[in-house]
Amino acid sequence: GFCMNLLLSQTPKHILAQTNNKTEILCDVKMEHAGVYWHRWSQEKQIFEFLVFSSTLGKATYGANINQDKFSVHGTSSRTSYILHISDLHASDNGFYYCSVSQSSQLFLGSGTWLGVVDALPLKTTRAPLSKKPVLCITKSKAAGKKGACSPLVWVPLAAVILVLLLSLVPTAHRLHRLRRRLWLRAHRQ
């Protein structure tokens, strides 16, 4: 099974990167391990995909059909931090990335990092937790004359993030519906 664990932390929590660029995700490990696994939850494909395992000796083992030139892992000499490097970014790289450690037949997951790849980055980004109210976008024309709208460079990535989060709720809602239906059927059979 999978277990979320505070002994594995990832930074940053969110990445918005431009197509064809590269990025990296840091995983800090505060527990004994033989190496770190990296996985991606693809919202588009609805799968949890194994990317690469990096042993404490620095040997990498890749998942099926994973491009070894695209993903690489570098660990510190203390074996407490691992960095996943992702190059040549495309929209197919969108998703949640998790580092994990295996112990006693359980896979302990890190805190997760959301990666969104866009063709053009907004001119100015503001980082705010997703749980808070959205930040209002004020353009120069709005500040001066109180009219106009946000630039598409700002609202398109924001809309993409909201869409991904809403789509991630679909499997949970489906499972709850099936559970409610089973309980209703069980109650009416008795």
UniProtKB/TrEMBL annotation:
Protein name: CD8B protein
A single cellular component GO annotation: cell surface
GO molecular function per UniProt: coreceptor activity; MHC class I protein binding
Domain Ig-like stretches: 12-110
Organism listed in the record: Nyctibius grandis
Lineage of the organism: Eukaryota, Metazoa, Chordata, Craniata, Vertebrata
Gene Ontology terms describing biological process: adaptive immune response; regulation of immune response
Domain of life: Eukaryota
Transmembrane segments: 153-173
Membrane-related topology note: Single-pass type I membrane protein
UniProt KW keywords: Adaptive immunity, Disulfide bond, Glycoprotein, Immunity, Immunoglobulin domain, Membrane, Signal, Transmembrane, Transmembrane helix
Subcellular location as annotated: Membrane
Pfam families in the cross-refs: V-set
